[in-house]
Amino acid sequence: MSTARPQPGQYVAYFDNYISRVPAGAEPLTVLAEQPAELRQLIGGLTEEQALTAYAPGKWTIKEMLLHIIDTERIFAYRALRIARGDQQPLPGFDENAYAEESGANARSLSDLFQEYDAVRQATLTLFRSFTPAQLDRTGTASNNPLSVRALLFVLPGHEAHHRHILRERYLPLLR
Fold first, then answer.
1. How many other CB atoms sit within 10 Å of the CB of residue 30?
2. Residue 8 domain flag
3. Is residue 154 within 8 Å of 18, Cβ to Cβ?
4. What CATH number is given to the structural domain containing 54?
5. Is residue 7 in some structural domain?
6. Contact yes or no for 78/8 (Cβ under 8 A)
């Protein structure tokens, strides 16, 4: 049996783009567990030089995008933890472009970034597996909008799927 999708009101409409990328009937924890192999297949074989590719001036490099996925997963997992534990303090947003600019991703090896990605993903899976059904349905406030733990469970794999799509459509054609 798959985890029920979040209901309207448990998240802001902006997240529809991510939630819709989790196939109907798919178990989001299974999707999260399968994504590391899929991401490695997509970009794991790139050279360090190729991983510094940006598809247009002012856009992130592949390394910066990978670290953005990591940073966002950490932030969303932290939000899920706080909300699941009943914390009703409003949680602030974050500026992903400022994070990317300050990340230092381009000075790191792709191997090092994947090592961090694996550690964060394992922690995320362990955290979400620990939540009870009641905790999944808890709703808090993030970026001045309602957000449930259940919505975050779907947003996380959808966010990565969104970026894998961008990699396939905009970055990888430049490397052929």
1. 13
2. no
3. yes
4. 1.20.120.450
5. no
6. no
Q: Can you read off the two tokens belonging to residue 141? A: 């406030």
Confidence grade of residue 35 (pLDDT, cut at 50, 70, 90): very high
pLDDT number for residue 2: 65
pLDDT tens string 24-34: 999 999 999 99
- Report yes or no on 3 lying in a domain: no
Domain holding 131, by residue range, is 13-175
- Domain total for the chain? 1
Q: Per the domain annotation, does 124 fall within a domain? A: yes
CB-based burial of residue 37 (10 Å sphere; 0-12 exposed, 13-18 middle, 19+ buried)? exposed
Residue 149 vs residues 59, 69, 139, 158, 175: alpha-carbon distances, Å: 30, 18, 7, 14, 38
Q: Which residues share a beta bridge with 148?
A: 139
CA dist 68 → 31, 104, 132 (Å)? 19, 11, 28
